[in-house]
Amino acid sequence: MATTTATIDVPVSADRVWQLVGGFGSLPDWLPYIPASELSEGGRVRSLTNEEGGVIVERLEAFDEQARTYSYSILQAPFPVTGYRSTLTVHEVSGAQSRVEWSGTFTPAGASEGEAASLFHDIYTKGLAALKTTLGA
Predict the structure, then answer these.
(1) Measuring CA to CA, which residue among 70, 71, 74 is closest to residue 82?
(2) What angle, 0 to 180 degrees and rounded to 10, lies between the N-to-C axes of helices 14-21 and 113-134?
(3) What percent of the chain has pLDDT over 90?
(4) Buried (b) or exposed (e) across 64-97, using 16+ Cβ within 10 A?
């Protein structure tokens, strides 16, 4: 099993960051390479469309509003992994500073552990940079 984690510090309150990222269907609000997200099954499954028109289907596995975190698994995606589970968390550093952490665990399938970890680390890093830009930070 492989893992990767990316973090970014933003000069914005954790509550403000969570307002933007905390909705399971909110990826298009801050992640430019995911222009569409459709929720189903009472908001527990999201079907994402990427810039190339590819579809990624994910299931919400855990959600904690107070701790500002949620975890999800991939049901369908064009990625060379199985058993994917990811967590997005917003940590309060101070009143006007927060740290966002995006991590994942997965089993490579058709790629080396390093290639799979690099793929997701790149997705997380670029996604967090886009979040910082969206927040105007």
Answers:
(1) 74
(2) 110
(3) 93
(4) eeeebbbbbebeeeebebeebbbbbbbbeeeeee
Rounded to whole angstroms, the Cα distance separating 86 from 62 reads 10
Angstrom distance (rounded) from CA 81 to CA 101: 21
Which H/E stretch holds residue 86? strand 81-94
CB-CB neighbours of 61 under 10 Å:
13
The whole domain housing 104 covers 2-134
- DSSP designation for 43: G
- Cα three-residue angle 13-63-30, rounded to 5 degrees: 50
Structural domain count of the chain:
1
Structure tokens at 26: 């909110």
pLDDT tens digits, residue range 41-72? 999 999 999 989 999 999 999 999 999 999 99
The CATH number of residue 27's host domain is 3.30.530.20
